[in-house]
Specification:
By secondary structure, the chain is an alpha/beta fold. The chain is built from 19 helices and 15 strands. Helix 5 crosses helix 6 and helix 8 packs across helix 9. The structure holds 6-O-phosphono-alpha-D-glucopyranose.
C-alpha cells in the first residue's frame, strides 16, 4: 500500500546516518556519520521528500527507536534528514549481520575463505540464513510503508540483497535500485554458496530495475554469476557502473582545520626530521592486507638497507567488526608483526613502524597531507576511497602503491605503481620505486591521480543513480 504522505526518494542501508549511545546519566547521545549517501541525500535538496531506512545496531540505537515511538528519529539528531530506524530483534540482527552478511557474503565477495576448512554450510548456517531473510523482509516492509506511489528506492549493499525482489512483490509501482559497495565474486567462487542460497541472492538483486556496482569488473562478475547459477536467460533489467569518487571540496577544507595541523605536528615528531613517510589508513579488515603490507615493508628494509633510519611506515589500522573472533585475531597479528619489525630493526632514534589503532579522522587527514608514499594493497576491495583521498589531500604530491585487486585500480592504475597484493617481494620493490620517485614526477602523477579520483564526487554519484532509475522506468 502506498502511503499518502510517502517519500519520493528512499534509501535503505544497514548502518544509518546517525548512531546513539546511552551515557551514565541515561541520556541518549547521537553521533552523525558521513559518506556518499549523506552527501547524496543532501544534494537532492530539503524540499525533496526523502526518507532513510536503517537498522538499530546497538542498545543506544534501540533505545532511540523506543523513545521515537518506533517511528522517525528526531530531526535534530539527523540534521533534518527523515530517518526511520528499525528495531529488528537483536538476535535476528546479529545472525543476519555478523553471521551471514559479514561472515559469509563479505567473505565470498572478497574471496577470504581458507577453503580446506571453510566455509561449512550446516544447520547453523541455515538458521542464520532464515534470520537474514527475516531482516531483509523487515526492510522491504518498512520501505513499502514509507514510499509514495512510483517512488525511487536505493537499496544498499550485501546486507540487503533480498530487499529488491521482496519489495517489488509488495509494491510493483516502485522504481528500485540496488548498489553493491563490495566487489562481486567470480562464478567459481560464488558457487561455493549452496545453490538455493546463491539463486535467492541473485534473484533478490534481479528484482531491482537497476543493479549497480563500483566498477565494470564487479558488474560483469554479477552478470556472469546470474548466467552460471540461473541460466543464460537470467539477465538484469539494467546494470550500471557508478565509480564513487572522493569529495575534493570537503576533504581539502577539512584537511586544513586546526586539529589537523596539530596532528601533523605530532606525526612529524613521531616520524623524525628529514625522514620519508609511507602511509596506510584502513579499518583493521581482513581484505585490506595490512599484515602483508608490513611484511613488504620489512622486505624493503632487508633488500634496501639504505632506507633504514630514513623512512617510517605510518600504519593506521582502526578497529572494525570486533564482534568477530577472526577480526580480533587479525588485529592481534597486525600488532605482533609491527612490534617484531620494530624490535628487529628499530634503533634508539628510529621507530620503523608507527602503528595507531584508535580511529581519528583528523589524524588520518594529517597523514594524508604529509605522505610521501601511500600504500593501498588490499586482497580485493570494492573501490578503496583511501587511494582516492590521499592524492587529493597530499601537500607535496604522493606516490601511490596500489593493488590491482582494488576497484580504484580501474581509474587510478595508469599513474599508480601497481602491485599483486600477495607478492611481498613485488610490493617491496614497488615501495622502493615509490620512495625513489623524483619529486617532480611524483607531483605530476599525484595531480593526475587527484583528477581521476574526483571525477564522480559523492553527490553526483548519488544523483546518477537516481537518474538511471528514471531511465530504467521509461525504457
Ligand atoms: C565498508 C564497505 C561497505 C560496507 C561497510 C559496512 O565500508 O566498503 O561495503 O557496507 O563497510 O561496514 P560496517 O562497519 O557497517 O559493517
Amino acid at each position: 500500500m502506498a502511503s499518502p504522505h510517502g517519500a519520493q526518494v528512499l534509501v535503505a542501508s544497514n548502518r544509518g546516518p546517525v548512531s546513539y549511545t546511552v551515557d551514565e546519566s541515561g541520556s541518549l547521545r547521537s553521533r552523525r556519520g558521513g559518506g556518499g549517501l549523506v552527501s547524496g541525500l543532501s544534494a537532492i535538496g530539503s524540499d525533496a521528500d526523502s526518507v532513510w531506512v536503517c537498522a538499530a545496531l546497538g542498545d543506544g540505537d534501540r533505545e532511540a527507536v523506543r523513545r521515537a515511538d518506533g517511528g522517525l528519529l528526531p530531526a535534530g539528531d539527523t540534521g533534518g534528514q527523515r530517518v526511520r530506524m528499525l528495531d529488528i530483534d537483536a538476535a535476528v540482527h546479529a545472525d543476519a549481520y555478523n553471521g551471514i552478511a559479514n561472515s559469509v557474503l563479505w567473505f565470498v565477495h572478497h574471496m577470504l575463505y581458507q577453503t580446506p576448512l571453510e566455509p561449512v554450510f550446516d544447520a547453523e548456517f541455515r538458521r542464520q540464513w532464515a534470520a537474514y531473510e527475516a531482516y531483509n523482509r523487515a526492510f522491504a516492509e518498512a520501505l513499502a510503508e514509507e514510499a509514495a506511489e512510483g517512488a525511487a528506492v536505493l537499496v544498499q549493499d550485501y546486507h540487503l540483497c533480498l530487499v529488491p525482489g521482496m519489495l517489488r512483490a509488495l509494491r510493483p509501482d516502485l522504481r528500485i535500485g540496488h548498489f553493491s559497495h563490495t566487489p562481486w565474486a567470480p562464478p567459481e567462487y560464488f558457487g561455493l554458496l549452496p545453490d538455493d542460497v546463491a539463486a535467492e541472492l541473485l534473484n533478490g538483486i534481479l528484482g531491482a530495475d537497476h543493479a549497480a556496482f563500483l566498477t565494470r569488473r564487479w558488474a560483469d562478475a554479477f552478470t556472469e554469476c546470474c548466467h552460471a547459477v540461473l541460466g543464460p536467460g537470467a539477465v538484469p533489467r539494467e546494470v550500471g557502473v557508478h565509480g564513487l569518487g572522493a569529495d575534493a571540496g570537503f576533504l581539502r577544507k577539512r584537511a586544513h582545520e586546526p586539529d589537523v595541523d596539530e596532528r601533523m605536528a605530532a606525526l612529524r615528531e613521531e616520524i623524525g626530521e628529514g625522514r620519508r613517510a609511507i602511509v596506510r589508513v584502513d579499518r583493521t579488515e581482513l581484505s585490506k592486507n595490512i599484515v602483508r603490507g608490513l611484511l613488504a615493508y620489512r622486505q624493503l628494509l632487508d633488500d634496501h638497507p639504505e632506507w633504514r633510519e630514513k623512512v617510517v611506515h605510518l600504519a593506521f589500522a582502526y578497529p572494525s567488526r570486533q564482534d568477530l573472533a577472526v577480526y580480533r585475531e587479525y588485529t592481534a597479528e597486525v600488532r605482533r608483526v609491527a612490534e617484531e619489525i620494530n624490535s628487529t630493526y628499530g634503533t634508539p632514534g628510529w621507530t620503523p613502524v608507527v602503528l595507531h589503532v584508535k580511529d581519528d579522522f583528523a589524524r588520518s587527514l594529517a597523514a594524508y597531507r604529509l605522505a610521501d608514499v601511500a600504500l593501498v594493497n588490499p586482497i580485493r576491495d570494492g573501490m578503496n576511497l583511501v587511494a582516492k583521498e590521499v592524492p587529493v589531500v597530499s601537500d607535496e604530491g604522493c606516490a601511490l602503491v596500489l593493488s590491482r585487486e582494488a576497484g580504484a585500480y580501474e581509474e587510478l592504475g595508469t599513474d599508480a605503481i601497481v602491485v599483486n597484493p600477495y607478492d611481498i617481494g613485488g610490493t617491496a620493490d614497488a615501495l622502493h620505486t615509490a620512495l625513489s620517485m623524483p619529486a617532480g614526477e611524483r607531483a605530476e602523477r599525484s595531480k593526475r591521480l587527484g583528477a581521476a579520483a574526483t571525477a564522480l564526487p559523492p553527490a553526483q554519484w548519488f544523483l546518477d543513480q537516481l537518474r538511471a532509475l528514471g531511465r530504467a522506468q521509461s525504457s
